[in-house]
Amino acid sequence: MADQLGTLLRRLRNRSGLTQEQLEARSGVSVRTIRRLENGRSSDHRLGTVNLLADALEAGPEDRQRLAATLARSKGEPDAGAAEPSDGTAAPDHEPAHEPVPGPESAPAAIPAQNSGPKPRPAPALSPVHDELITAATELAREIRRRWQREEEHRRVHDPFPLPVRWQDAPESLTDHSENIQRLPPGATPDRMDLSGDLGRVAEVYRRVLSGRLVVLGRAGSGKSILTIRFVLDQLEAREAHDRVPVIFSLGSWDPTAIALRDWLIDRLVRDHPHLTRRAPGGSTLAAALVDADLVLPVLDGFDELAEGLRSTALEVLNSTSLQLVLTSRRGEFAEAVQEAGAPLVWAAGLELTDLTLDDLAAYLPRTARPVPRGNGRSGAVWNPVLARLRAQEGGADTPLARVLSTPLMIVLARTMYSKAPDRNPAELLDAERFPDENSLEEHLLAGFVPTVYRRRVAERGATGRRERHRDPERAERWLGYLAHHLARLDRDQQDLAWWRIGDSLRLSTRLLSVVVSSALCVALAEWFVNLVNLPFPVSEALLLGGSLGAVAGLAFGCVHAILARFGTTAFEPAHVRLRLPGAGTGVGRRPVRTFVARFGTVLLGGFVMGVGCACALALQRRLFYGIPLANEVVIKGTLVNMLTLGLIFGAGAGLVFGIMAALEAPLDVASAATPAGLLASNRATVVRQVLVLMPMLTLAIAVGGHLITGLLDGVLGPLIWSAEDGLVFGAIGGLGGTCSYALSFTAWGRWLVLSRVWLPLTGKLPWDPVAFLDDAYRRGVLRRTGAVYQFRHIRLQHHLARSYREHQSRYAPARFGPGA
Length: 821
Known about the structure:
This protein is mostly helical. The protein has four domains: 1-126, 434 Repressor (Amino-terminal Domain) (Orthogonal Bundle); 131-353, Rossmann fold (3-Layer(aba) Sandwich); 358-468, no CATH class; 504-756, no CATH class. The chain contains 28 helices and ten strands. It has a six-stranded mixed sheet with strand order 1-6-2-5-4-3. It has a two-stranded antiparallel ribbon with strand order 7-8. Mean pLDDT is 77; it is low at 77-129, 374-380, 462-469, 583-590 and 811-821.
């Protein structure tokens, strides 16, 4: 029964549009008590507490009756009137957020109870919205837990044991007042907050922060990302059905001046979990419903990765919300944003990660190293001499090497380069002439990481006789450098390496040229194929007609693409739907009319341009083969009529077909697109299915639509001729050529195929199999997965590779650096 009471309270709160914090302010009941009630954890409910919540939620008589009925059943009483002792001796089950619960003279009216007559009606069943949201949240939690467990294992966090991540309280200037963090009323004395703990208890530490807002600060490579992963996994371990689901969001891709925080969170959820595009009963997507129902706990990783001019704005936006969240950042960047914004993150407590010590190094590094063979006169692990030298030196902890190896990132790089490489000796790091300062040591470790992991994997697989792809370290480093450089060429210095955006690294003129060429080839090949089957023209005439049709179609598709580029929509996003073919037993999706109209209007223009181009190609054919002059008045009039007629035929036919296809789309299932390769595979399957459906439908629509439209316009525009043979020929050319041109020019997978699988490999910037290369780089530890995208292991490694790539490019021109370059 406690669960039913909590469900009813949560439904009333969501209907009122209040967060738990806002309900606390209205009712005087603490967030902790509200959370316990909504989660069904409180077994001793007081009528006074529920009275306060009912008034704050402006519950109507029917809702109050349901609350009373549920409360009575939860206490095993025949009515709600006996729920509270008259002497008031029962201990309260809530902690007042402001003042103690008012006395009788100011108490809100009690929930009406039925003291006589029939017993209260049973509480209504849970609403479908609530059921579906709870199910969606549970599915999301399960997927996130599986994903981050795999990622933690891949990063070898536990090999041989987790590096100790410690922290201290953040400076008071970067956190809010204790009274605000504990959400106390004016004049109340705050308790001392105990935020001590270690990596294994970070979720427990977070639960001590009553406001639910925590800032984690630390220098580059100090372990913030590893801490967020452990926090998410620990939170999910203790999660109950109604609790928030912690989700890690890489904050560097957010532009607070262009997109609201809520919308950005929803976009990231949909990108990494496409099944959340399913519609909730209320009409919004499940992703939006989960965010609006306060069932998502944002873990915002990388505040420092925001563009410098956006950080203070982002902080102000976060301060304007009451979302519970966890935020990570480097201390310097966060401090600058706080100073510029004039306030820290409101209600937020703060932790600052501390450096590792020589004792930590002595306990960790020797256990990662291969034993040195005794035959060479040495014994023990390769790190022991280095550690002994550091301890023997006066102020060893302050030497450049000790300071460099005080962060988990640099320790991992050093371990990779020296612990298992028989030809490398870490003693070279003590060479003061070669490495006079921290920067030279860090650059050395960053520069040696990629060559080491590629040489080592080649040696390991070479011993087993297995064939190894991408084994050349120099070429692998060049390809990775190009990808890192590509991320710097986007709107801002991005960290998300999305397969559908790799082609954006090319100049806009190059991308437009690829659209023109691929579309021209598709239409020309379609015309030649139709002519080969049907033979309506001589071979030479068919070749010329196919070439001219292809050229005009390429220009038409290029123009449409250029228009989209003008409005900033050329970065085609991957489809978050699959094609639901008839016979699957799923019926027609929701809102079919609105979906059909939106898709019809979008495609109508492109089809019309294609029809106009086809009319121009026919005029050119008559000029070249029959000598009919283009400047003749009759020819001009006929061409204009053909432009209008064919434009309407192709536009209406394409719009109709794409509109119908939109009604066949359904969201991806939960198991789809959990990885970048999974999202790519699902998009490839979606595009192939679209092509198989579009070709016959578009052919039929053009053939039949041409007959209907010419029949309507006949007499208005003069005598129009559209035979059955004309319909089949034009329909087949439009169906084959138009469908393939659409697939290659206006889908994320098509652009990936043309640019990343053909164009970039031809120029040597990427290998011929980029998917295998990216997955291989992930397995080697150079990349990491974050939902549907890859990221470099660390932003410093990304910057190093990008800088190295630019230094080795003789044709690199800074003037071309930037969007559209």
